Amino acid sequence: GLIERRGTDWFAEVAPLEYQGFYEAVKAEMRGECVLPSTVGALTADDRRALKGAFRREWPPALRRPYEEFASAVSVASAARWKQALSTKPRKELAFWRLLRMGAAPYFLLGASDRERLRIRVATPWDWRQEFELVGFSVTPRAAGQPTVEWEARIRERASGQDRSVNGFVEVRWSHGRFMGAPEAKVQLVTAHSAVPGYFPLE
Fold this sequence. Notes:
- By secondary structure, this protein is of the alpha+beta class.
- The protein has helices spanning 10-14, 16-30, 45-52, 61-85, 89-99, 125-131; strands at 107-112, 117-122, 132-143, 147-157, 163-173, 184-189, 199-201.
- Helix 2 packs antiparallel against helix 4 (61-85).
- The protein starts with 9 loop residues before the first helix and ends with a strand.
């Protein structure tokens, strides 16, 4: 669905021309180091392993523009599918709860990071609805190193009527390195945990 896509080549599905164009640029840059098929869809497991190890962390200059075009196309197409799927308020609520990992039972986040110490109780959707209302949910495509969909939720506190925003993004990426594995999504929360409605700080 919106969070994870397995069992299919999402890149070939949503941006076939840009994906093929990027693959052709990669193939040309390898200058015959190995024999590769003409289309990205025909890659074998051995071909994919060869592509995975062919370049360092940064793409060489000749591949940067083809990659940016590919990443941008995937971002735009992914965001468009989000918008189509999130056509009703219940669907938007469900996506928001999934992004924040709110489930049928409450649980606790305990730990520390460079930004904050975590001592938080995560609400259930039922608890969340008693105190908050989702009044808006928007998505925006962004290519930033990886194909990315940014999201923003606008939440209204029922008691005060005050609106708050929660922001995050989802990166669409290869699951086991370049050209390897079914694409997957990496969910990132930008808003501090303590500022998320439904993430209740513990005293």
